[in-house]
Here is the input.
Amino acid sequence: MTATAVKLDTGPDPKRQARIDLAAAYQLASRFGFDDGIWNHFTLSVPGETDRFLVKPHGLLMSEITASNLIVVDQQGTVVEGDGPVETTAFCIHSKIHELIPEAACVLHAHPPYCNWLADSDSGEIEMFDQDCLRFLDRIAYDNDYQGFASDTVEGERMARAFDGKPVLLSRSHGVTVLGGTVAEAFDDLYYVEHVCQRQYRVVSSGNALAQIPEGVLNRIQNEVHGGHRARSAHLHFAALKRVLEREGSNYAS
Here is the structure.
């Protein structure tokens, strides 16, 4: 009797899944109003590669991004896969962050309205006034040294160093950049940093003073804020958001 070879199911192709997840993040950003015309960029390191990342081709809206129309760019700025150019600031910012912070597989740079409100405010910082704000306790860096358009990699290197070991960078007069080991983790932080900036805006705009959480409480929950449950919750949240896109008939996975 001749043995029959059994083909094992090894699960989804990591490179294909990377494209699907990044495309979902782009379309979700558009759905939530985080986008800015054809500008702003989300990137994801190509699985198994150390010097290539996925990004949208310049000229497309975030709402138009699908798994198949993302391009692959190398560390020299050459498009090595896909059609369309890489936008200059996307390459200058993201290439250096991926290079200098290799654990940041996913880099989301955006100009959401409420993050920008805070970034455009003098000495604007997220205050610890609300439970949702606590997820950013000691997890957000502030870059108050605006240097103009990121038209060279020197600015990307400066921004990379400004993270100072934290996953979120709020840049004065510019916007927000979020890092994550996965698309789910990065998008979860992007979603909530915009959410808490909106909450802070509403309280400040009402003329009321922000509530202050006692220092003792902040110290006590420090370990919870940085606990491993965050990644698990992020993946559940991102999966739920992708189901919303699917119910709406999105083509993000095509």
